[in-house]
Amino acid sequence: MAEQDKTPVPASSSSRSLDPFSAFRSEMDRVMDSFFGGRSLFPMPSFNVPDLRIGDVALVPQVDVKEDDKAITVTAELPGLTEKDIEVTLEDGVLTLKGEKREEKTDAAAKITERRYGRFLRSFRLPDGIDEDRVAASVDKGVLHITVPKNPKAAPKARSIPIGGKG
To answer: Which CATH code is given to the segment(s) 57-149?
Structure first.
C-alpha cells in the first residue's frame, strides 16, 4: 500500500476567511487531528461567530485602547458611520460599542438598486477605579473617541504583604 502524501496544501486567497476565530479553529483541528491520528480526545466546541461583513469587507472596527494616570481612551475607526449609527454603553464595568451600517445605491440608468448591510459589536472589560458618571463619547470624521476618566479616590491601593514562616 502506498503511504499518503501529507504535504500541506496552501490555502488560496479566495478560500481564506476574514474571521480569525475560524482560521484559528481550523488550524487547531488540523494539529489535533495529526497528533491523535484523526481522533481528537478533546473536541473543541463549535462557536457561532456572526458574519460581520458588508460584501467582501469585514465590519469589525479597528480599536485602539490607551491608558494613562488620568483616563482610559478608546478610539474606533468607523468610516461612513455617524453618531446615529453607533451605540455606546457601559454596564457592570463592560464598555460596549455597537453599530450598524446600511448602504443603498441606485443606478437609474441601469435600473438597479444595490443594498448592503452589516452590524458590529465590540465589548471591553474596564478595570476598577473608573468614574462611570464622566464617560464621554464623540464621533469625528468616522472615528469614535471615548474617554473613560479614572476616579483617584476609587483607585485600588497596592500594599506589600509580608510572607511569614510557620508559626
So the answer is: 2.60.40.790
